[in-house]
């Protein structure tokens, strides 16, 4: 649920601080990609498929990479991960950076590792920035400059991120329209690129590269009825409250006093909880804002996924049907057929 914001650009490397020169465009082995908005039921579908074949589950969730962010990310619990191990979960501390370029490198290695060991790679998650970066590659943007980032953070502390967003909009109107005023990560990265290069960041973005996954199957898991999806989101948010999200965030603040300034803090649910603990909002407002922010995240994810070519949309409320171009067929039969074409009897 607490995946980091997918707001803004269709091409993912504006939010990276890592040069993409190491990222190549080799074609990846056939992979089953299970994407979708938060709370749609992606993990359950992935585990059901993993029961059928020898599978390598690979997480594509930008918040679940962080150790200690468990309740607020709807991370599978210890027992579930024992039965269904996921690569790329719990691989960073909250004060360590993890970019789309890091994900591309790590996911590429895990996909090849799966095939070398006779397993089907199943990529599961809703961070569309990561999925697009893996599939289409990254723009070649300059690496992070920590002194520039520190200076921008100080200016934001003094003036507010909305003021820096107005500055970005004056420098690069097209990019200013794509990035929201409440998206500090991408505002900072865009201004950093401008200061390093002296050019508009949008001039350096070439758009989608060649598809590295032409043989893969892309499933989008979501409820056809938006109200049903919203009900699932609300239920999950209530479960997080009951499971101790407030205590989890309180513990993170104790371990990392500057948690509010860390990349992990940008995950939906954590921002609202820190505001509640700091006394900026009351309990009822925290409950309402957490649910609303998650619905907004789901809307952004769905918008991005509609641009995801060659995908089939699948309703988790009807687990034996898949809808593709309004035509229903047996979803798991289709997947089994495709996997058989890729790998034979595995």
Widest beta sheet: strand line-up: 3-2-4-1-5-6
Helix content estimate: 40-55%
Protein structure class: alpha/beta
Q: How would you name the CATH homologous superfamily of the largest domain?
A: P-loop containing nucleotide triphosphate hydrolases
Q: Would you spell out the secondary-structure blueprint of this structure?
A:
Layout: E1 32-35, H1 42-50, E2 55-59, H2 78-83, E3 86-87, H3 100-116, E4 120-124, H4 128-136, H5 146-159, H6 161-171, H7 173-178, H8 184-197, E5 217-221, H9 226-243, H10 245-255, H11 270-277, H12 283-305, E6 311-314, E7 322-324, E8 327-329, H13 331-343
Parallel strand pairs: 1-4, 1-5, 2-3, 2-4, 5-6
Antiparallel strand pairs: 7-8
Helix pairs in contact: 3-4, 5-6, 5-8, 6-8, 9-12, 10-11, 11-12
